[in-house]
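Marked as duplicate of an earlier ticket. Keeping the data here for the record.
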Amino acid sequence: MRFLMMHRLDESAPEAWNPGPEFIEQMGAKIQEWTEKGVLITAEGVLPSQTGSLVRKHKGAKITVTDGPFTEAKEVIGGFALINAADRAEAVQLASEYAAMFGEVEVEVRQVAEFDDLPPEAQPGA
């Protein structure tokens, strides 16, 4: 099964966006370890929200775009990893290893919907 791990950081904390050499080294080692084990599919950090935009579709198909920073959000996504795990328990255990490298962080773990997870009527040819 595939799982998405998204880590959230306090956007107002400058140290959250300026990782030191020790963190970079730890993250590099974890990436190498998980790659060798076949756990890691991909992982990336993202820049603070002032570099992003939020696109919303409203009723009636109206689209609005709001450029960052997003003042209503204290914690924002700082990065993500897409992993392979046997089940949610293993994914949570891996997320705990991932979180241990950060100072203060929240890591959300979500199972990725696979084609076979779709109800039969939603699959092509049904």
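See parent ticket for discussion. The chain has a mean pLDDT of 90.
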